[in-house]
Specification:
With 88 residues, this protein is mainly alpha-helical. It has one domain. Helices cover 43% and strands 8% of the residues. The protein has 4 helices and 3 strands. Strands 2-1-3 form a 3-stranded parallel beta sheet. Helix 2 packs across helix 4. The longest helix is centred in the first third of the chain and has 14 residues. The protein is globular, with a radius of gyration of 11 Å.
Length: 88
């Protein structure tokens, strides 16, 4: 599972687009809390995964967020997008 979580994080860093915890977790077949555990430490690479309500990574300081986090307003909210683009 850690490999699949890493694939999602790598993909989001490549396309520089935020994705909700819910969409990523659903695509991975796990719960959002489980996804957060797999992510581990708060760091810029993981900050592309965000809360549905705020569009922000939960509990991250500004220093822990990717500098390009808000380069677009687009946020992936559908598991199907992740599944299609990563072949899950």
């Amino acid at each position: 599972m850690q490999d699949k979580v890493a694939q999602v994080v790598d993909y989001l860093n490549e396309v520089k687009t935020r994705c909700t915890y819910n969409a990523a977790a659903k695509a991975l077949g796990i719960t959002p809390p489980a996804l957060k555990k797999f992510l581990g430490d708060r760091k810029p690479e993981n900050s592309w995964l965000v809360s549905t309500g705020t569009g922000e990574p939960a509990g991250y300081t500004d220093e822990e967020k990717h500098p390009e986090l808000h380069r677009t307003k687009r946020i992936i909210t559908s598991a199907e997008v992740i599944e299609r683009n990563l072949g899950f």
